[in-house]
Amino acid sequence: MSAGNLRINAERLQCRLQALADIGAIDGGGCCRLALTDDDRRGRDQVVAWMRELGLQVQVDAIGNVFGLRAGLRDLPPVMSGSHIDTVRTGGRFDGNLGVLGALEVVQTLNDAGVQTERPLVVAFFTNEEGARFAPDMLGSLVYAGGLPLAQALEVRAIDGARLGDELVRIGYAGAAPIGVYQPHAFVELHVEQGPVLDAEGITIGAVEDLQGISWQELSITGQSNHAGTTPMRLRHDAGYAAAAVSHFVRGLTRDMGAGQVATVGKIDLHPNLINVIAARAKLTVDLRNTDEALLQQAEARLAEFLETLARDEGVEITSRRLARFEPVCFDAAVVQQIERVTQRLGYPQRRMTSGAGHDAQMLARICPSAMIFVPSTKGISHNPAEHTAEADIAAGGNVLLHTLLELAQQEN
Amino acid sequence: MSAGNLRINAERLQCRLQALADIGAIDGGGCCRLALTDDDRRGRDQVVAWMRELGLQVQVDAIGNVFGLRAGLRDLPPVMSGSHIDTVRTGGRFDGNLGVLGALEVVQTLNDAGVQTERPLVVAFFTNEEGARFAPDMLGSLVYAGGLPLAQALEVRAIDGARLGDELVRIGYAGAAPIGVYQPHAFVELHVEQGPVLDAEGITIGAVEDLQGISWQELSITGQSNHAGTTPMRLRHDAGYAAAAVSHFVRGLTRDMGAGQVATVGKIDLHPNLINVIAARAKLTVDLRNTDEALLQQAEARLAEFLETLARDEGVEITSRRLARFEPVCFDAAVVQQIERVTQRLGYPQRRMTSGAGHDAQMLARICPSAMIFVPSTKGISHNPAEHTAEADIAAGGNVLLHTLLELAQQEN
Fold it and tell me: What is the CATH class of A220-326?
């Protein structure tokens, strides 16, 4: 059997997904394995055991990232693949896990077929990708890529007060390997889309070419509480209306700026929040995302301009607090094209796409050519026990990952 | 001294306002005398004691409304004046109390001057005007005017579970007088504006010619929770945006329909109310008011039409629950003109105006010619310990009430 005809064992991959989902299982088929909890430790132990069964050389680094090395024919920088196995509190069974277990399945497929690669392969999982217990999210891969000093990361406190460094020691994952133990030749992450695009369009594979920049603001609006009946419209300073006007404005902004711009006001709190009282205060969040940094800055500027006009027109005070700001990430064009070529050869419907969520691959993109493979999320549901990806789509994603890694691992340069 | 030159004793009125405010006093200078509580009983006992000191014949009816009669020269239907002494939980010292103690001060002024009127005068205070403990508000005057059967009103449960009829007995105000014990010749209520118009315009007296109709709805919007980054705008069913769009729409509606129409979205609750999640559900309230019933119906119809379009465009489900609906009330043109003539003679700046809040006078308007006299509320602040009306304005209101009642009490028909 030539390597070009290799296929992963989809059933075996499903078994591992099921076995990992049983650890920290919650009602509805989902998982709760918050980073560095006992359930996370049990999940880690299981994956490490599988790595060892497959003959991988396991290393754990100082921030708890775990790497399983399959040697190559030559001593070249390895091709790395992986993701994370921590989950949010009401997580699904695919988010992150698929990328780690998919890469493990690739290794086992190569083992079974006796295929040796020129470059080593490394299967990785990174600490605290979700950010549900420790901030920031993607912490392990961020430290790995040099974006956050180790010493600072170890001091991070969990939402439950625990120190990250202490929790690593407690669960036995404060490893001996240095940060950046491998300088990869390339990094590829298989992941569920967590959005509705592939499912809605009936497409199996997304070749992820970029990742949206994120701008998060919290707006605080101060108006004046007054009687909803006795106060003429012209004398109102209605913080509730101003909040609604922001939501209405950003929707219009997305229409003006086209499909690359998304905007969400997901959180609005009014005070006193009563039917017959004009709101004195409002707090709301604005989530702006764009794949183009210049356009994202334009969206921020247009919002700022609108807020000034709104404050003046309504006689309210508006202050803004920045909660997060990440520039967009462009994945490596050559790796993306390689994913496309492989997908075409395998005969799966595909499209290029943008990731609207953050992923470890965006951190690895700082230090090596990187890209991602998306498979559909049914109805786009994610961070929810109902998260689902069809078996055929998982098989397809695994096979695209297999051949993408195989080709990368044969590259001379 | 001729009756035309009579003036109330403004200092004495201030003393009574202070003494009543001391009962159930709360921080900041306000009052908490929820209807039929022990504090309400102490307030009632005080006012009844003053009525008796002034020689009034006190009657309490079966719903706890209290009446103090000053006999006239002739046995004609009396002229009635009054308001309420119950307060909201964070009430001011003027709302309601001024109308009752102002009428008492009129009686004492007439007593002191030895003025006898043709018609009897009745000073009244009505049970549970605020509706802060029992629903509906204006309950005592509503029962008095025949709008709610006594038996049904006695069964009403408080927010603390107590039965209204039991509470009346408990505080000793389940009276022997039948409902509708007096059929008034006219009713005049002195009240603080509870809105900013008089204060903003520097005007002392408002001759209230009508009272807004009220339409309260609670809207429930069901969309679909999704990732704020990965979900393209065209695939969203954003209940949070839809809620904001309603607030934005009703603001536009008030611009279209002119100053008679006011609209408020004072309460918005999103679910899950998170920065990076498109809201699955929203609940919001819409408060529409107009002095013209046909226009109020037009506003309701235009909102309903907008909600249909919005639901279709956004792919969300919107249901509406009616929380309250009162038709506008027109006060008696002759009584309003009389207030205007008196005010002009006394030399106070005045204007006609609309009440945006509900008052006992709107219930009395069902059974006799009625109108209201408004005095300014500083900055429009109401239902708040900071509620304030300047002493000079209180004196002016008392004098307008005095001469309006005097004239009405001399009328043959």
Answer: alpha beta
A229 and B357: CB-CB below 8 Å? yes
Peptide bond into A136 cis (omega under 30): yes
- Tell me the whole-structure pTM to 2 decimals: 0.82
CA distance A19 to A42: 11
Nearest to B194 among A230, A273, A382 (CB): A230
Nearest to A227 among B227, B244, B380 (CB): B380
- The C-alpha of B296 sits at a distance from chain A's nearest C-alpha, in angstroms, of 13
> In 3-state terms, what secondary structure has residue B109?
helix
Please state whether the peptide bond connecting residue B77 to the residue before it is cis, i.e. omega within 30 degrees of 0: no
Reported as a single tens digit per residue, the pLDDT across A221-260 is 999 988 899 899 999 999 999 999 999 999 999 999 998 8
Res B92: pLDDT: 93
Cα dihedral sign for A307, B223, B268, A237? positive
Tokens 């399983």 found at: A68
A interface test, pick of B230, B231, B362 with most A CB neighbours within 10 Å = B230
Looking at CATH, the fold of the domain delimited by A3-211+328-410 is given as Aminopeptidase (3.40.630)
Using one digit for the tens of pLDDT, what is the confidence trace for A165-198?
999 999 999 999 999 999 999 999 999 999 999 9
Residues of B with CB below 8 A from A195's CB?
226-227, 229-232
* Inter-chain touch A265–B194, beta carbons under 8 Å: no
Say yes or no for a CB contact (<8 Å) between B230 and A356.
yes
Length of chain B: 413
User: What six digits make up the tokens of A170?
Assistant: 């407690």
End-to-end CA distance of chain A: 27
Domain boundaries, chain B: 3-211+328-410, 213-326
Residue A413, pLDDT score = 83
* pLDDT at residue A285 greater than cutoff 90: yes
Residue with the larger pLDDT of the pair B54 and B227: B54
CB contact under 8 A, B266 and A287: no
Which DSSP symbol is given to B161? S
One CATH from 3.10.50.40, 3.30.70.360, 1.10.3720.10, 2.60.40.1470 for B213-326: 3.30.70.360
CA-CA-CA-CA torsion for A19, A25, A28, A34, nearest 10 degrees? -120
